[in-house]
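User: Show me an example of a complex going from sequences to structure tokens.

Assistant: Sure. Here are the input components:
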Amino acid sequence: MKDIRQKLVEQLRTGNCTPRIALLARKLKEPSTTLHYNIKKLEREGAILGYKAVFDHRKIGGGFTAFVLLTLSPDEYGDPERLANEFAKHPQIESVDIITGDWELILKVRTKDQDDYFEFVKKVISKKGVTKIKTLTSLRQMKSEFVEL
Amino acid sequence: MKDIRQKLVEQLRTGNCTPRIALLARKLKEPSTTLHYNIKKLEREGAILGYKAVFDHRKIGGGFTAFVLLTLSPDEYGDPERLANEFAKHPQIESVDIITGDWELILKVRTKDQDDYFEFVKKVISKKGVTKIKTLTSLRQMKSEFVEL
DNA sequence: TAAATAATTGAATATCATTCAATCCTATGA
DNA sequence: TCATAGGATTGAATGATATTCAATTATTTA
């Protein structure tokens, strides 16, 4: 048996999907060519960045979810985007935001379990420039990516 | 001119998309029927919850993003899910998590601007059961929904 | 080891996205 | 008011794709 599952998840997580124009045409009672035109326009304008699958992460080896608050050392203050971009590269990280207040960055992280998360914090998050880390562990997700769970 | 744009955004925000099997078949060098079978299986198992568009929220009237930390009154302590589910219904709310630590809930909220956000806090978030609200305003998003921006 | 169940796959079909050209609408300026 | 140009809408035709089906192969179960 091939292990296609993992490859599929990898591909569908960030793209490789497309809108169902014919279905939308029926729902909205509009000609599909009109919808096609308007969707392409949204894409051209950069309003639509892509199409992707939404997963129940518990079922694809991402049972642990946490929000991570970070403060940066004064030398990173001027350019928090450098570190933020570095974090963004990791597939375990769902979102990266530079924020106001007592913390500079907030990350949303998905790992298999708490052990995995601890390893991830040690290897990826704890780096020069990060002076303080606070983890808010998700006990229950009610909504994610605008989808109610 | 019809205003289809808003209706499309509404529909594509949470679903009405589908995987591009033929494209994946070329990428992964597997027969499209095999991929079709495996994708349907992921759907049946509930691992895939749906397919949706990813937006640049700044271009569809959601220029303001914030993470909202909430503490609940002792009487809501026992059943934070009730309030969480209520929040989840609002389209401005991207995610709702029940968390550990000093706060009980974290929301990710998208509104047009800060004024809109203030209205939203007053009308929706400030309700009986919520005793403390802390807003972390996003100044810059580097990644969202696993998509680098 | 046999039988049952699950997974893979090519061929055929049904559905759909996309293209194209014609038409309509809207904004702009004389 | 009218003419014009660019954008938006749409039906018909086409090309591409998802889906179904049946046959085969692999894996699990008893």
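The lines above are the inputs; the final block is the predicted structure for all four components together. Residues 4-44 of chain A form one domain.
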